[in-house]
Amino acid sequence: MSTKGSVKGLPKAKAEVIAPKRGRPARKETATNKEQQQKILDAAEKEFAKYGFNGTSIQQIADRAELPKANIHYYFASKEKLYLALFDNIIHLWNDHLDEVRVDDDPAEVLARFIRKKVELSYSHPLSSKLFAMEIIQGAPHIRKYIKSEMRTWVRNKAAVIEEWIRKKRMKAVDPVHLIFLIWSSTQHYADFDTQVLTIMNRAEYEREMIDEISDFLCEIILTGCGLKVPAKPR
Amino acid sequence: MSTKGSVKGLPKAKAEVIAPKRGRPARKETATNKEQQQKILDAAEKEFAKYGFNGTSIQQIADRAELPKANIHYYFASKEKLYLALFDNIIHLWNDHLDEVRVDDDPAEVLARFIRKKVELSYSHPLSSKLFAMEIIQGAPHIRKYIKSEMRTWVRNKAAVIEEWIRKKRMKAVDPVHLIFLIWSSTQHYADFDTQVLTIMNRAEYEREMIDEISDFLCEIILTGCGLKVPAKPR
DNA sequence: CAAAAGCCTGATCAAGTGGTCAGGAATTAT
DNA sequence: ATAATTCCTGACCACTTGATCAGGCTTTTG
User: Which of B64, B78, B150, B161 has its CA 20 to 30 A from that of A145?
Assistant: First the structure.
């Protein structure tokens, strides 16, 4: 997804914003500094992913991070800046793989790798997925621009490649954009709806075994549905 | 899904709760009464679907319904009661169809009908879908019981039928539970993530044509993936 | 008609909201 | 050592939160 320009950069420290000494950077990235910021970001991700932007209070985040509320505001000028800082990571994470797809590549290989990678991400970064889902459901008020530009471009590029595959009869003629939506939805579902999935399957949490099972299942259905043979699992 | 017992019944009127005259019911279902309640429920659905339980204030709902805040509390004792009242409708709506599925039915017919129905619901009741999604993402704090009991039973029953189809070689051997998850996720995606979908497809809103397109696409991929032939569209 | 029941709402409450700020503590630079 | 900078936080502010309630209004009942 190659997100060069971040949604909104990590906020500069307050002091710098208020009284920026020109020339040398006013705030160094000290160890404590980074550490504290990460602590806040981690706590914020958990809370925002659970209650959305409006539903989360800074006090909640402060409690979770075990810091006084005012300290949050020292590092992040406003609730919104903190929220947006989280999306920097998420957007980078999201589709950075698959960027290098080419028309010459094998459709089955590419799609299988894509599906497995997305399932893996749902497993390794469920909070990011939930946070993103929340934001979209609410109408993407904070990242609308990103969807309209980078994300749309990304989808169109991938769709063009898939269309080329179809033209060359390397796979069945299916709508490429909906295919991308299908892979997104079916994979992210396991992160966003983990409560429902785990409850119905009577599990406490995901395990490696189950993740592989899910990947295999989705590859099987989707690739077959595209008229492709599922490639042997790598490794 | 046959939800006989509602999650929590529509709240009785305050007066009745506080001073229940025994014998005859204290509050009749007058026209105004029902009308007002529906107005509140509609407004509440819109707001809760957008901001979740914690993120929505009663004032917001009151503004949207064009009623004074205190009037909301007249009909619904608490924010939670109002919230739960919404899930009565949703849960009834959700999977009431497909209840009558039998082992003798044609797998392709049943799955195709299921997919089309779910896409249709995403189109006709996007707010219900979003509200449900929000609740699940947040860990289903208010409807956990329902998922653990009725919903789990429902899934198991349907999965048993699918397994029987597989045993009889009427379709490919795929995990029935994951198949249900796949249909849920891929169809609901178009309601929950409508902002993303529409933005990327450069549309203002869904139209009949596009809904049919989506249904056809999902039927094609999923049924083929299950080793089934897509049945001719009814009508 | 009058009495009763149901309907409605402005005013009010304690608790919580995002955000500010003065000033002290800790660290770093000179 | 001393000065400068950065880090931290308790106290505070105006505003919003969910909820209550007294009292007036309207409709139904007898």
Answer: B64
